[in-house]
Amino acid sequence: MTRTTTLYLGITGGSLGIIFTFYALYYGTTDEAVYGESFLAGETLGAIMISTAAIVGASLAGNNAKAGGWLMLVSGLALPVLIDTYGFIPLMLLLPAGISNIIKRKTS
To answer: Mind telling me which residue stretches traverse the membrane in this protein (predicted)?
Structure first.
């Protein structure tokens, strides 16, 4: 996978993570209004920070590939934990991008 592909996958995964976090926040506040309990409202700030770290990791794909790969990999694995089922689409984008950056050899 080329660096450009990992850049686009990382930015898309991070952006979708932020969008799905706001959707999960909306769903959590609606659930709180109807049922009196909220299960997502407290985790949204962490999910936004994790998604931002994924975008930063994607931007590091050209200069420091291993650090960017680890940021995308950890962000991809943390998003489903924080926002439940809404984090699996960003996971499917961030996981291959992170792994390919970690195992990519440096070309001279």
So the answer is: 6-27, 39-61, 67-95
Instruction: Supply the pLDDT for residue 51.
Output: 93
- Under 8 Å between Cβ of 87 and 20: yes
Task: Tell me 2's DSSP state.
Answer: -
Is the CB of residue 69 less than 8 Å from the CB of residue 101? yes
Note the Cα 38 to chain centre separation in Å: 22
User: Mean of the pLDDT values across residues 69-84?
Assistant: 91
Q: What are phi and psi of 32, to 5 degrees?
A: -70, -40
Query: Rounded to an integer, what distance in angstroms lies between the CA atom of residue 86 and that of residue 63?
Result: 30
Domain total of the chain: 1
Q: In the predicted model, what is the mean pLDDT of the chain?
A: 85
Q: Is residue 108 part of a domain?
A: no
